[in-house]
Amino acid sequence: MKGYYALRFLLASVILAGCSSHAPPTGRLADSIVVIAQLNEQLRQWYGTPYRYGGIDRGGVDCSGFVYRTYRDRFDISLPRSTEAQISLGTQVSRDELRPGDLVFFKTGSGKNGLHVGIYDTNHQFIHASTRHGVIRSSLNNVYWKRVYWQARRI
């Protein structure tokens, strides 16, 4: 009987040691995991908030207001309030180098009112305040967003 318990203890030790042998993610991967979690939580809280030009709260928000609030509330980073001003921030990155938290910009019309901004999430997805659907997640591979995609910037 003593040998039975010793064998069970040994097996349990081997199994548990195998489960804990991987170190937690570090560096950019760990940062990405945190950013993704923060973006998902922001989307969960704001999902469906209606679009309102000039808005910055859950009563109504526009695209740059949603970006402004997300960076302020989730990352303690103060960004300018307008899409036009947000375009000048950070470093431009190519579409194939996008990382969670990068700002994605679109030319949806002409002039400064023809600009749109969102925040890259993962898997070719971004979160933003859509004029038609309010705060949502959309795919960069969608025919419309693919056609009007302009640039991305890393803050």
TrEMBL record:
Residues 1-23 form the signal peptide. Keywords: Hydrolase, Protease, Signal, Thiol protease. InterPro entries: Murein_DD/LD_carboxypeptidase, NLP_P60_dom, Papain-like_cys_pep_sf. PROSITE patterns: NLPC_P60, PROKAR_LIPOPROTEIN. GO terms for biological process: proteolysis. GO terms for molecular function: cysteine-type peptidase activity. Residues 33-155 form the NlpC/P60 domain. Belongs to the peptidase C40 family. This is Endopeptidase.
